[in-house]
Design goal:
Layout (H helix, E strand, L loop, with lengths): L17 E5 L23 E2 L2 E2 L4 E2 L9 E19 L10 E7 L7 H5 L4 E8 L5 E5 L5 E10 L3 E2 L1 E8 L11 E2 L8 E5 L23 E2 L9 E19 L10 E6 L2 E8 L5 E5 L6 E9 L3 E2 L1 E8 L1 H13 L3
Antiparallel strand pairs: 1-5, 2-3, 4-10, 5-8, 5-9, 5-11, 6-7, 6-9, 12-21, 13-15, 14-20, 15-18, 15-19, 15-21, 16-17, 16-19
Length: about 325
């Protein structure tokens, strides 16, 4: 990874994140903070509260204090960096911010979160307007929630919380497991091309609602092919693979192949457009990484790699979880 922004955004709505509380959102709703798309702006579009912004915006403070919003991470994990994006906020962005994290079990209410043990992730730092303000986080602790504090008030378009997913291994005991899912710790480690859509979309939960929510490459004009590589949540034996080309009608790959290094899990196999494909894997060898080759190009919406962790994989996953509690 070249920097922390290459890591998954643990807070994004499409991964299950939610803005569970904010002290004020008079001008623009708090939920905009975790929308997956970049913020947009249309000048001279006024509602009954003023100019409409694609972000979170509080009223002008007339008393001491600051504003805040609490985000439940879609997947708990170790936070490596935060982006406080003030896109389009020029005369109304906050001067400073801090970011805190909390690790809370279960499903706490906003009132319970107020009494949580909050840890500073980003100290009080200056912000620039209409800018992706990047802050590296130095912590190995697992968090379930983050709190964005802005000083004294103003607007923030997006909050990105990049890091490494650390799921609770107790949730995997005796249940079917998607070894590639981002929420379980799967991560994209490389791809040949992502002209129309990023490969991280493949590992998101749920079904892609449009073609734009998948991975799509440019059209190839040579004899090569496209590929994407995934590091699984941990070592496991793959038993079934899903390649979902739903919504890809005229631009699905013609074929695909699944491998792990020199090990072939599924040979080159025909794919159909706009179809959810399921394939049985009969190779019992445990793997930690996989590669999907698509021929010659195109895109698909979701990749599922169902299987079972090896005892060694389960032990390492449990150790990572234990280490992140301290």
């Amino acid at each position: 990874m070249s920097d922390f922004t290459d890591l998954p955004d643990l807070a994004v709505r499409t991964l299950g994140g939610g803005v569970v509380a904010a002290n004020d959102e008079l001008f623009a709703e708090r939920e905009n903070l975790i929308r997956p798309t970049a913020a947009v702006y249309q000048p001279h579009t006024f509602g009954h509260k003023g100019q409409i912004y694609d972000g979170w915006e509080t009223r002008r403070r007339r008393e001491p204090g600051h504003d805040w919003a609490i985000v439940r991470l879609g997947v708990p994990g170790v936070v490596r960096g935060v982006v406080v994006d003030t896109a389009w906020f020029v005369g109304n962005y906050p001067e400073h911010c801090t970011v805190e994290g909390a690790a809370v079990t279960g499903y706490p209410s906003p009132e319970e979160l107020a009494d949580a043990d909050w840890v500073e992730l980003v100290p009080k730092s200056a912000l620039k307007g209409d800018t992706r303000n990047l802050f590296t986080v130095d912590s190995t602790k697992r968090f379930t929630h983050v709190r964005l504090n802005i000083f004294p008030d103003g607007g923030v378009a997006r909050l990105r919380v990049h890091g490494e997913a650390v799921p609770d291994p107790a949730l995997f005991d005796g249940v079917p497991l998607d070894l590639a899912a981002m929420e379980n710790g799967g991560v994209i480690t490389g791809c040949s091309n992502m002209f129309f859509g990023g490969p991280a979309n493949l590992l998101l939960p749920g079904k892609a609602r449009t073609m734009g929510e998948g991975w799509e490459t440019a059209r190839r004009r040579d004899d090569g092919n496209e590929w994407v590589e995934v590091r699984l949540a941990e070592e496991g034996v793959v038993r079934q693979v899903e390649i979902d080309t739903t919504h890809f009608v005229g631009n699905a790959p013609g074929w695909f192949r699944l491998s792990s290094g020199d090990l072939e899990l599924i040979p080159r196999t025909r794919l159909q457009p706009d179809t959810r494909h399921l394939f049985v894997v009969e190779v019992p060898t445990p793997v930690r990484n996989i590669r999907v080759d698509t021929y010659p190009d195109g895109g698909f919406g979701r990749l599922r790699v169902y299987g079972a962790l090896t005892p060694e994989g389960q032990a390492r996953l449990t150790q990572r979880y234990t280490d992140s509690q301290h």
